Amino acid sequence: MSLYGWLHIGIILFPLILSFERKITYYKKLPALALSLLIVSTVFIIWDAIATARGDWSFNEEHILGFTLLGLPIEEILFFVTVPYSCLFMYETIKLYIPEKTISVRPVWYYTASTLLLGVALFFTDQYYTWTVLLFAAGFFLLAPLLHPVLIQSRNFYIFMAFSYLPFLVVNYILTSVPVVLYGSQAIGGGRFLTIPYEDFFYSFAMIGFWTLFYEYFRIKLAHRK
Predict the structure, then answer these.
(1) What is the pLDDT of residues 63-104, one digit of tens each?
(2) Partner of 135 at 20 to 30 A CA spacing, among 20, 127, 143, 159?
(3) Residue 219, class by beta-carbon neighbours within 10 Å (0-12 exposed, 13-18 middle, 19+ buried)?
(4) What residues form DSSP beta bridges with 69?
């Protein structure tokens, strides 16, 4: 087993075991999760494959099995399954134990955030990873009010996003300090928190935000069909 593979086991083990816990009943939400992964994970895997081929990042052969798909280690593909599975389990747990409260935020603030992110992205068009993750983050603020506006007015969503950075710091620190993932100097700005590129924080926000957005959208759609 590779180090990257062991990380996946650590990421998914407890959410997988607790999926049938009678209060959360996470297993009943798996169809919505699967649809979210089909859209969001597919987009990010394709981008990941393009970025890897372009040299934005590479993978340390000492810590992967060596099996590849679309030019990506199989462990990297699994990242887009184990991480959303565990993150959305955390999201459902937060919804169960923390009372929901609606945050009244005018749509102009979402579009302002998106505009600012797009504006900053223009300064980093020569750094592919920086530029792309800023576009993804901007895209979330543009799409969320249209697809499922209730989500971005949910206090629990923001609590969840804040908590999601705790496992993010642990996993990303391991990936970047060992390192398992090596970043090309031409793709990032160079600034890091510990060993984690600052760009990874925007990457995590956008990716988890999109997974949650489509998950909630399909969860409600499927519930209405019953």
Answers:
(1) 999 888 889 999 999 999 999 999 999 999 999 999 999 888
(2) 159
(3) buried
(4) 72
What are the pLDDT digits (tens) for 104-160? 877 788 889 999 999 999 888 889 999 999 999 999 999 998 899 899 899 999 999
Taking only Cα atoms into account, the Rg of the chain, rounded to an integer number of angstroms, comes to 18
CA 199 to CA 187: how far, in whole Å?
10
And the tokens for 170?
Answer: 């642990």
Residue 226: the pLDDT is 61
Work out the angle at residue 189's Cα, subtended by the Cα atoms of residues 177 and 82, and round it to the nearest 5 degrees: 45
Of 99, 195, 223, 134, nearest to 142 by C-alpha is: 134
Is the CB of residue 181 less than 8 Å from the CB of residue 57? yes
Q: Which of 193, 199, 211 is nearest to 40 (CA)?
A: 211
d(CA 114, CA 140): 8
Is the distance from CB of 189 to CB of 128 less than 8 angstroms? no
pLDDT recorded at residue 224: 76
| SS3 call for 86 | helix
What was the pLDDT predicted at 72?
95
Nearest to 212 by CA among 95, 49, 68, 57: 95
- The reported pTM is 0.94
Q: What percent of the chain has pLDDT over 70?
A: 100
Buried b (16+ CB within 10 A) or exposed e, 13-48: eebbeebeeeebebeebeebbebbbeebbeebbeeb
